[in-house]
């Protein structure tokens, strides 16, 4: 297969290495707004660097992986599906709700498969949690606790274009909570705080956030996020049921320490970043995308899924701004 890659920043460069190793990829073509960066990534991999991102659309691709900046996602997705090219795109679909809806209309019109990059769906722990919850083995689930705790804040130039902590960070939790439960979120209460670098506050964002979600069956979920978990990258999920309770992300590298006497768990080196924590999941999702691009399977994480998670993030921002609970029909309408 001839696969194109748009954008080779941190995650794009990792995707380039993964794609080059997948047996289904015969040719990898790489483009970036910085042509020199594209050449630097492509060279050691034996991939082909293109002078412009636009050149990807005349390269007779079998699939396109989009890891460019968020504001470039809508145009690249629309151009690809209009050309009949299956797309894998990192979350979110677009930086705004209006642009997300526009993309979704184009995808639905063309029926070209689009897979959104929510890599947690391909992590063994989350897969096991989904099976445990939906099989009924936990009994009825009364409480979910999810967290995404970054080891440090992004650079100042990133924050103003990120979409905010709910859309950029917690959106992963919103998606995975919908996926593992198979249920829909019906109401949201969110708040945020700033105790870190001033540039985050100056950009209108928050470095720490907390969200209370209510699902359509009455299950409650608490979502926590921060940019200042200096001990390491900490992503976990707890599902507490009437019969059993389980956790995802508790292993010897979890960046938290017990202060109970004589407890030495966990004892490993904490995860320093998201690629270390989810490297294998990123690889699995791209391997699956090759099957999606070849039309062997349906997309496991559609643009509609991306919209659903984005709507929850939008509801969080409305709730935080107006200091009240927001019902999801308010934002869906």
TrEMBL record:
The keyword Oxidoreductase applies. InterPro entries: Gfo/Idh/MocA-like_OxRdtase_N (IPR000683), GFO_IDH_MocA-like_dom (IPR055170), NAD(P)-bd_dom_sf (IPR036291). Keywords: Oxidoreductase. Residues 1-118 form the Gfo/Idh/MocA-like oxidoreductase N-terminal domain. The keyword Acetylation does not apply. Coiled coil: none annotated. Residues 127-246 form the GFO/IDH/MocA-like oxidoreductase domain. Pfam families: GFO_IDH_MocA, GFO_IDH_MocA_C3. Belongs to the Gfo/Idh/MocA family. This is Gfo/Idh/MocA family oxidoreductase.
